[in-house]
Amino acid sequence: MHLDQYAKVIAMPVITCIDDLKRLHKRRAPKMFYDYAESGSYTEQTFRENTTDFSKLRLRQKVAVDMTGRSTKSMMIGQPVAMPVALAPVGSTGMQCADGEIKAARAAAAFGVPFTLSTMSICSIEDVAEHSPAPFWFQIYAMKDQDFTVSVLDRARRAGCSALVLTLDLQILGQRHKDLKNGITSPPKLTPRNMINMAMHPGWSLGMLGTRRRSFRNVIGHVKGVANLSSLSAWANEQFDPQLDWDKVRRIKDMWGGKLILKGILDVEDAQRAADVGADAIIVSNHGGRQLDGAVSAISMLPSIVRAVGDRVEVHMDSGIRSGQDVLKALALGAKSTYIGRSYIYGLGAMGEAGVTRALEVIQKELDITMALCGERDVRNLGRHNLLIPKDFEGDWV
Questions:
Q1: Is 25 a catalytic residue?
Q2: Which residue of 66, 123, 199, 244 is 20 to 30 Å from 261, comparing CA positions?
Q3: Cα 66 to Cα 240: distance, rounded to the nearest angstrom
């Protein structure tokens, strides 16, 4: 091995946890896009508690148990998965790293977990379908523009998307102070501050110069009158439908005609209504703390929702998962599957496609080792018997 090869090996960071990827992401992506991922609304109380509430749960260690032949394999809405973890829809993923959605979809497909493409993605449905070796899921919001809704659902069907994720908790856009202060846009406006910041991240900048995918390609060219950044912003700011109700959810379900997952459930009554409309799964989620600040954490609401509807609909969970141990705790509280957003975005922003793969590897290894030390060999056998749960974990609310 030559000296320069030794130097490269020595310089390669050792990634042992998601926080390692987070630190690299912060160094390698422009500030506005790192802040976009690493932020919540208003005071960020809910954003913080999504992660800290996991630490209230303790694991039950078991010994003298045969730990051979372990498996993290499971099912999500009838689809086999290497572990019960999907990549959640994240807007502007392609601004964390050039062609980000394509890279994340390829990493997920190779690993054997689902990737969910956001409507507000940089790479289009067609871009991802062209490059992904496996079908992916598509996420949509309830929008006022019915022609766009019909068109984008048809495009998702033609692309072979195997499930639709309908986000329910974005009728009104929550305020995220960092995004407003950074003046975030996709692509970034060429202000002096942004140009200086991009110049400080040459790897990111070169990647963006090398791709034609730098704005919201699911929208631009597919909506009448939307042909550039200014017209896109005007359209998007008026599109989220504040009149969304359960009848409209049913109509979207009928329009889609396939597997439907409802995202953004944080209340037992809402979970029951979601089951009533015939959803295949619901995602217990507070949008990663990016919408209603002051809401409870997703993990603390999970048990009551599982008790209410777990026998009627698959209950999934996101918001706050940063490790395989977090995945195990969610599964032990009754979730059938989980989703990661920031955890894979850190990897993407840090190392591109390889970083997404590394994030999945880290989480699977943590899940596998923790499962073994809890005396379990099959991820599908996890339950409350694997946890020590504080009596006040779900809160004693008036």
A1: no
A2: 123
A3: 52
* 39: amino acid identity, one letter: S
Helix (H/G/I), strand (E/B), else coil: 57? coil
Retrieve residue 23's tokens: 């630190």
DSSP output for 249-284: HHHHHHHH-S-EEEEEE-SHHHHHHHHHTT-SEEEE
CB–CB of 44/339 below 8 Å?
no
CA distances to 227, 278, 372 from 231, rounded to whole Å, are: 7, 37, 54
Nearest to 119 by CA among 194, 218, 202: 218
At 66-103, the pLDDT tens digits run 999 999 999 999 999 999 999 999 999 999 999 999 99
Specify the CATH class of 18-388 in words: alpha beta
**Chain center to CA of 172:** 19
What is the full DSSP assignment across 274-338?
HHHTT-SEEEE--GGGTSSTTPPPHHHHHHHHHHHHTTTSEEEE-SS--SHHHHHHHHHTT-SEE
Radius of gyration of the chain (CA): 21
**Do 91 and 101 form a contact (C-beta atoms < 8 A)?**
no
Q: Which residues pair with 76 in a beta bridge?
A: 79
Q: What is the pLDDT of residue 7?
A: 46
Higher pLDDT, 191 or 169: 169
DSSP label at residue 212: S
Domain ranges of the chain: 18-388
> Cα 89 to chain center, whole Å?
5
Whether the model clears a pTM of 0.85, i.e. scores above it, the answer is yes
Q: From the candidates 25, 287, 316, 385, give the one annotated as an active-site residue.
A: 287
pLDDT class for 194, splitting at 50, 70, 90?
Answer: confident
Q: What angle do CA 319, 320, 325 make, to 5 degrees?
A: 125
pLDDT of residue 11: 61
- Tell me the percentage of the chain whose pLDDT exceeds 70: 97
